[in-house]
Structure formats: C-alpha cells, structure tokens
Amino acid sequence: GGANLGLLMYNPEDLLERYNAPDTLKxxxxxxxxxxxxxYSDMGRVFASIVEDDFGWHExxxxxxxxxxxxxxYPVRTYQDHHNQWTLSGEHSFLTELAxxxxxxxxxxxxxxxxxKVATDxxxxxxxxxxxxxxxxxxxxxxxxxxxxxxxxxxxPLNPAKDYPMKPVGIEMFKAPPVSDDDYCKNFxxxxxxxFENNRLYHxxx
Length: 206
What we know:
The protein is 20% helix and 22% strand. The protein has 206 residues and is of the alpha+beta class.
C-alpha cells in the first residue's frame, strides 16, 4: 500500500522509439490510465495494453522525483551509511538503468506512474491522493512488442509524506495468449485499433 512504480519503455531494436505520454493520453481522450487503455510509443505503436486493473487510476503527467526535489523534501541518506535504507530519487534510478543501454538524460521521456492517483481541484491544481493506493492493488500489462522496460519504486514527486516512503512492489511475468479480434483493449478506442495495425505492419517488417 502507498507504493509508486515509475515506468519508462523503449524499443530495444531502436532505442529512439520510446513511450509517449502525450500521445497515450490525447489519443485515448483521458487524463488517467486504467483497463482498456494502451501505452503508445512515439511511432504510433502499442508497447503494452492494460488488460486487468483493480486500482483504476494511473497517472502519466507528473514525471519522476528529481534529485533537487529529493533533497528539498527528505533527509538524504547515502547507501554507504544506510545501505538498503538509503534515499533515492526516481531521476537517479532511471538514469542509472538507462546508462546500461547507452542512454542518457536526453533520452528520458515523460514516465508513467503506476499506482499513483493525481486529480485536479476546482482551480486546476494537481492533487495527490494519498489514500488511493491500497495494499494488494494490481494491474496486468500485456506487452504487444519487444520492449525495454525501465522501472523504479521511488516516491511519487507529489507524495506529501514527510518521511521517505519505502513501499515494495511485486512483479510476475507470464506468457500471454494471442490477441483476438474482439480484444477489449484493441477495441477500447478506434485509435487503439489503428495502433495495433501499426504493430502488425511493424512485425511484418513494413
């Protein structure tokens, strides 16, 4: 409960293709992501589909916790002094993983924050809902193409907690069945159907 999972996605065959938050949201006419929504690349293809979700609200506009914000919000604890209880920013975590694939700060796109609900008040301010992420919440992503997945479990940048939250996230991997013509995600929006067609052409080498 109370966890946040930051997610970035890239095409391992062409690292210039990556998760595109603006296209994902505007293409499906939504501010939040849940079952039925697809996660688009900047080439109009589908990296992954949300096939199951009992959380119901994942956000893709607030980015990740920066080094600057980490130092402003929390007492900094180094790994050398605190080992697994050290404080880590999402920015640092992402960059550390991206470097393993020759990617740098310039390659960081806007990330998806799973299990974090951010709504707006009547004045348009972004409000983090601390009560939303319950223990046991889960979602299932079905990957529609080979995808390099970069994750971190650092706090959401708008999390108001005074103590650095350290919340675990479990991950399981399964083999998915083929996508049928009546698939819920594929037909959730007309834009999704077109994006799946782009995937089909991509896998044909066209």
